[in-house]
Amino acid sequence: MRDRVLTKVQATVGFVSSVTAPKLVNHKRIHTPKDIIVDIREFYGVQISYQQVWRAKERALEMIRGKPSAGYRQMPRYINMLNTVYPNSYIRMQKTEEDEFIYLFVALRPLIRGVDYCRPIVIVDGAHLGGAYKGTFVSASTLDGVGYIFPLAYDVVDTKNDCSWTWFFEQFKNAFGEREEMCVVSDRNESIMKSVRIVFPNIPHYACIWHLWKNVCGNFKRSRNTLSDLFYSMAKAYTKEDFDKLMAKVDKIDHRVKEYLEDAGYEKWSRVHSTVNRGRMMASNIAKYINGCLVEARQLSILEFLEEVRILFGSWHCKNREIASYRKTHWGEDLRRY
User: Fold this and answer.
1) Which residues belong to any copy of the MULE transposase domain (predicted)?
2) Are strands 136-143 and 90-95 parallel, antiparallel or unpaired?
3) Packing angle of the helix pair 209-219, 255-264 (nearest 10 deg)
């Protein structure tokens, strides 16, 4: 009887979820269904199917984090806590007529205070969320006087479209205002360009040189290897003489690339033709870096994700202030005029 029973032992979904839950508490730890199958087979000698493991993992995550919809119901309470901890912050939430969540904009007071000591160059980008209700995470950032990443604001919207980007820039303008010689840098997204023209009609919008070159590579594959160094040298050239010499070389290799770059507008991607001093911020790399730091967090529920963003930006801000406190001289004094 013992041999007949013990050879047919099976693991239920509830048992697997209770065993797996402790290993899923840390969202940065990658524990796939295949790993769970191996653990159950090695420790308990039971073979389970992939479908069972998938259901068990979903149940374990629900035990740890709760239902995804609960985070949206607790959003007003979370906003109230942020306003209590960070007084005078600018936090706004948009809902539908049916009281359903659409947008959330967060600009914390410590970040609002520090923007006066940074260049008036705003780099924006978005990344998709991986939770049950999806959505898009949008961030705005710049560089401080030392060259460190300085986050300005972040936003959660339903999707990247004209309405969401316009709402984001409207809230950004209310929180930070419109500064002298301000500009926006992003990828060549039509919704972003349209929204900038609507909300900030007097400031220019520049393209990320990496995204522009990516489009060139997609359209002219034969010339991308020979023109790569020339393109980046043109984009970062400081004098028009150097720019014209490099453009002449591009014309000899492939005149179609020259025509494409002319149509895109030299002032959109070239440093020497820019109407605003962009410094070394020619691409949206810092926005990509922020999105890269939040890859695992984007799979969390909405409130857990917002907390991860707040902790990340707060740790950067605190670390930079600590480094600056060790110096006897001031950094970025020449940026006060902005």
Assistant:
1) 122-215
2) unpaired
3) 140
